[in-house]
Structure formats: structure tokens, C-alpha cells
Amino acid sequence: ADQQYDYDYFVLGAGSGGVRTSRIAATHGARVAVVECAPLGGTCVNVGCVPKKLMTYGAHFTEDVAGAHAFGWNVEKPTLDWPRFIENKNNEILRLNGIYKKILENAGVTILYGKGAFVDAHTIEVTSETGEKKTYTSKYITIA
């Protein structure tokens, strides 16, 4: 480990790519930090693929219930409890965020919450949600 830097490897972004590169580097002995300004997991987990798939999957139940009559099932007309549907979707996303957090923590990665910006080739300034700024140095930096 190069002691002239705070970290050996610094990653901006904790989506699937950022989490993986951080974890792999840490398992090889690097001192690693990742900075993220949104919930862990990136676009796919939080607002893209996962929510879309959960909502699409849930929407198919209306058709399944409607078609059950043809197979001898007597089923009342289904109704959607929208607040419960959204709550369950959100709970699944929170569960996945927690998995990403545990993966990083178990690998020994430092998780920083805020927005990262380059100061120079080896320095990142992280601005927290409260506006507090702190700089970190790293031998290597990846934008993920």
C-alpha cells in the first residue's frame, strides 16, 4: 500500500460496476473507498431495471386472475392496492441497497456518501448532503 495517498483506489459511483470494481480491488488488498450521492446500486436497482421489472411482474397478475376462470377457478374481480404495491416495490429496492452495502463493508471498502469531484489527478473532493467538503487522495481513481 502506498502511504502517500489516503487510498490505493477510489471509485466514483456505487452502481453495479462501482461496487464490483471496489470489492475486487479490496479483496486483493487495496485500500478502497467508493463515493455515492444516491442509494447504493445505481440506476438499475433504484430507478431502472429492478423497479420496472417488479411493476411489470405485478401488472401481469390481473391477466392471470382473469384467465383463471377458463381453468375452473371462480375468482372475484381483482383490485389493486396501489400504496401497498409501491411500498412492496420500495421495500425490495431497500433490501437490494442493503445487500450492496454489506458486500462493500464485508470487503473492507470505505463507503462515502456525497458527490465526488476531481481536484487533480489524485485528489477527489467529496461534498456531503449537508454541504461539508472533504478531500481524499488516491493512487488510482475510477469513474463508474
Automatic annotation (TrEMBL):
InterPro entries the UniProt entry points to: FAD/NAD-bd_sf, FAD/NAD-binding_dom, GSHR/TRXR-like, Pyr_OxRdtase_I_AS
GO molecular function, one term: glutathione-disulfide reductase (NADPH) activity
Family: Belongs to the class-I pyridine nucleotide-disulfide oxidoreductase family.
Signal peptide from the UniProt entry: none
Record protein name field: FAD/NAD(P)-binding domain-containing protein
GO BP of this protein: cell redox homeostasis; cellular response to oxidative stress; glutathione metabolic process
Names of required cofactors: FAD
Native species: Hemiselmis andersenii (Cryptophyte alga)
